[in-house]
Amino acid sequence: MKNTLVVGGAGYIGSQVNNLLNERGYKTVVFDNLSTGHRRLASRGGFLKGDLGDPADLARCFKKYRFSAVMHFAAFAAVGESVSDPAKYYRNNVANTLNLLDAMRSAGVKNLIFSSTAAVYGEPIKTPIGEDHPLSPVNPYGRTKLMMERAMADYGAAYGIQYVALRYFNAAGADPQGETGELHNPETHLIPLVLDAAAGRRECITVFGSSYKTPDGTCLRDYVHTADLAQAHLLALRRLERGGESGVFNLGNGKGFSVLEVIKAAEKVTGRKIPVKLAPRRAGDPAILVASSSLARRVLGWKPEYAALETIIDHAWRWHKKQRG
Ligand code: UFG
């Protein structure tokens, strides 16, 4: 049986997918430079420490193993940082990803599953957002992901690489079995920061903007459980294995929750009062980002299992307590 290469499999979402693939009988090899990932999260399958920026590392990896598919999670994903340090994003998310595509070409590996993002849409002009929504990213992060979607389409046409790009909305939660979860440093995402405030590790949660055109004035986001994202990767892999066409799919639950609703749900889950401080808007935040994922449901057969916000927060809370005591 051939291997699946999980690039970035020591990170938040890659590690969840790597575990699922192993549970379902796939052989995997994680390739990760551990710049933001954690070796202990890549606990299943093979592991090779290597850097996408170094073609020799990739050559070594593709020489050592035979792969039938590649999954690519190893991108930088902090929107604010992509504005202040775009070079870091273009280097890793574009140039290094092209190294990966070229290594696949050299080795004759044809199937690629790519982590894309809702950030490719930019400021939405309609909601929920379908895959046919105009693509107009408003930050370098979104632009790097869109560039790679375009590069994959061109590589597909010219070199026969089949790909699935999965546009995640707000990835959240943690492995229901508690084996893996979010460990970012610094952390910028809402749910782990809210849980830090619940645990008393932060004084309060700062709410960025309370005068948006939304029911309570705070931003609405479509939170999607990483275990459901992992299922979508498995379905996408099966599609490519069956010879299915390349495709691009949104992954979200189709329901927006406001920042204040997230905080309220976290108070319920944790049983703790969470102090809130209202602050000005954060640059580049659209008021509402909600997915239409009907294409993923229809074409991939994707059925999210953990759509309830309280379940997502509960799993994140259990992970948070396990890490921080
Ligand atoms: N927020 C706060 N306070 C905080 C942190 C966040 O109020 O301390 C708010 C944000 O302003 C936003 C919401 O909570 O309205 C969610 O923010 P996150 O930082 O958790 O997530 P984003 O929606 O900014 O970004 C996520 C991913 C990106 C991806 C984007 C696209 O992190 O990689 O979704 O949907 F591009």
Give a written overview of the molecule:
The structure is a single chain. With 325 residues, the protein is of the alpha/beta class. It folds into 2 domains: 3-172 and 224-251, Rossmann fold, CATH 3.40.50; 190-222 and 254-324, UDP-galactose 4-epimerase, domain 1 (Alpha-Beta Complex). It contains 10 helices and 14 strands. The radius of gyration is 19 Å and the shape is globular. It starts with a strand and ends with a helix. It binds uridine-5'-diphosphate-4-deoxy-4-fluoro-alpha-D-galactose. Residues 77, 79, 117-119, 141, 169-170, 188-190, 193, 205-208, 219, 221, 259, 282, 285, 289 line the site of uridine-5'-diphosphate-4-deoxy-4-fluoro-alpha-D-galactose (UFG).
Using the coordinates above, name the CATH class of the largest domain: Alpha Beta
Indicate the radius of gyration in whole angstroms.
19 Å
Distance between the termini: 41 Å
Query: Which small compounds were modeled alongside the protein?
Result: uridine-5'-diphosphate-4-deoxy-4-fluoro-alpha-D-galactose
Largest β sheet strand count, sense and barrel closure: 7 strands, parallel
CATH superfamily of the largest domain: NAD(P)-binding Rossmann-like Domain
The number of helical elements comes to 10
Counted up, domains total 2
How is the largest sheet built, in terms of strand order? 3-2-1-4-5-6-11
Helix-strand sequence: EHEEHEHHEHEEHEEEHEEHEEHH
How many strand elements? Answer: 14
Structural class assignment: alpha/beta
Q: Give the proportion of residues in helices.
A: 40-55%
Uncertain runs with pLDDT below 50, 5 residues or more? none
